[in-house]
Amino acid sequence: MSSTVSSARGLGLRINIVGAIGAAIILFWVAVAILAPLIAPYPVGKIVAFDYFQPMSSSFWMGTDYLGRDMLSRIMMGARYTVGISLAGVTLACFLGVTLGMIAAVVGGWFDLILSRFLDAFNSIPSLLFGLVIVAGVGSSLTVLIVTLALIYAPGSYRFARALAVNVNAMDFVTVARVRGEGIVYMVREEIFPNIIGPVLADFGLRFVFIVLLLSGLSFLGLGVQPPQADWGALVRENLDGLSYGAPAVVFPSLAIASLTISVNMLIDNLPYRIRDRGE
Q: Could you list the residue ranges that cross the membrane (predicted)?
């Protein structure tokens, strides 16, 4: 029996058992992020224990933090910020990058040259340094974080999509469409995008992982999500003193970050794709 458990034939995608496990973990965290206010055992900011950094117990499954707050509740609520901000950032980055990449491949000429060189220069700025400068200068509201993360990763998405689109743009069915007099919007929507969607989805997942790690890094440095809210990176930072106590308050947010990023990699590593052949 084949190990393939599901397929999306329209996109040329298959998910084997490893990818299915990754998808299940991702869906679990998405469900936690959505339902956190309903399923969290304690109010997220309420001090529920007199002793800080308590170990795991029947009352506090993941112990308590540096103020005596329930870590399970805070990790559940932190999922809303980690998953939500990262998903919004990668969606905006890939939308901008893929759209501009396909247009540049179809138009070519000076437009392609100038846009590519500009985004190459922008992409040469270290991502963490750029994020630190923007967030420190403008502030760390949720909107600023999302836009900053999108700007950091849009150039890479552009280069990836453009490279794919240039190859598809040289195919015969695209030449036929151009001879018919089809416009840029039609070429991008009907001819280019359907034939690069597989690798674009894989790139989307990879950039999601990058954004989760960068957001966690910014929060760890105190420039991400600000109190009283906290994403998983902020939870690690604020409970660092618990390392000397062996407190689970440091371990579980780190495990949450690791489980999400590894599961996304498990999924995208097991999504083979094929380019649709218009000659079929």
A: 12-40, 81-108, 128-154, 204-225, 245-268
Q: pTM of whole model > 0.90? A: no
Phi first, then psi, for residue 76 (nearest 5°) are -60, -45
Please write the tens of the pLDDT for every residue from 81-140.
999 999 999 999 999 999 999 999 998 889 989 999 999 888 888 888 888 888 878 877
What is the rounded distance in angstroms from the CA atom of residue 49 to the CA atom of residue 51?
A: 5
Question: Is 124 buried (19+), middle (13-18) or exposed (0-12) by CB count in 10 A?
Answer: exposed
Query: What are the E-state strand segments in the chain?
Result: 6-8, 13-15
At 7 the three-state DSSP class reads: strand
For domain 79-265, give its CATH number from 1.50.10.10, 3.40.50.2300, 1.10.3720.10, 1.10.530.10.
1.10.3720.10
Give the Cα separation of 48 and 99 in Å (integer).
49
Q: Domains of the chain: which residue ranges?
A: 79-265
d(CA 238, CA 53): 12
For β-strands 13-15 and 6-8, DSSP reports them as antiparallel
